[in-house]
């Protein structure tokens, strides 16, 4: 099937966040957070005349409980970002528009030219998290997850063990898809750790952070049941810093390690990932304007193949690697408490020489994908 699509659309993004808080007589605070989002499916799928799945169906984005002490720190348990995956990062300036290169522009792009490698893309897999109190400006955090799955139950389809099971440590075909989306087997025994310092030097507010994510990769398996480790155990590192003064905020981060884009585990012999981010913004009263950019080098998509019959693992010697970069400018204006008008332009490019990136076999090799998105809208949070 094929279609031609227009360049203009309206889009509605709705979420409901539920917060429960309490406090004990001895000063401990406790509670829970549940975030419900209405975009469980990327698109509407009609299987029959009266049977379809809706792209506005509800699902749980994050869901966790917490227990906190002013002197001992906070413990969280459930589906939540980790310290490396969004809770303790520095240098990511996204306080304008809808977030710039890590904003809502991805909702308007159809083909695979939209997947970024942001902190939040690590995923909200079920984990236990510890966040320390701040002492002399320093704090740290750590988390552990058995796998990439979230929610309850086993994840197995139709009660049969398979590659979508939460606890799968070997899955046939994992070399090919690695980790196409969140909640597919890719990482096991995941550890995140971050350290951060926040303080002031004269009129300038500073934040500096650094940390890592370490995990084990799911292995491939032949039809005879032989388990083979084809993917490298993910090891990713990140450092970042930002400064704020007189309404200006400037920040940057650098991330590197042996994962692919979107934190997909790489195949043995693949080049490592390197990605940097920079951004700046200015706020004056109700008005904020800013811009940000990222660029990265990744192993890409044309890797190796695993023979499920023989266990052979031939490589593709013509690999060139993949480059991705994006830049954005945007602004928002606060009309009333919780009500903003936002505007933003984003350009995102993927290039992997000699590799057909659009997935269409009938239109030749398109090894460079470009997305240009301009959006204007409102945001209401209450």
TrEMBL record:
Residue stretches making up the Porin domain: 3-346
GO cellular component: membrane
SUPFAM superfamilies noted in UniProt: Porins
UniProt-recorded Gene Ontology molecular function terms: porin activity
Signal peptide from the UniProt entry: none
Top-level taxonomic group: Bacteria
Transmembrane segments: none
Name by which UniProt lists this protein: Porin domain-containing protein
Lineage start: Bacteria, Pseudomonadati, Pseudomonadota, Alphaproteobacteria, Acetobacterales
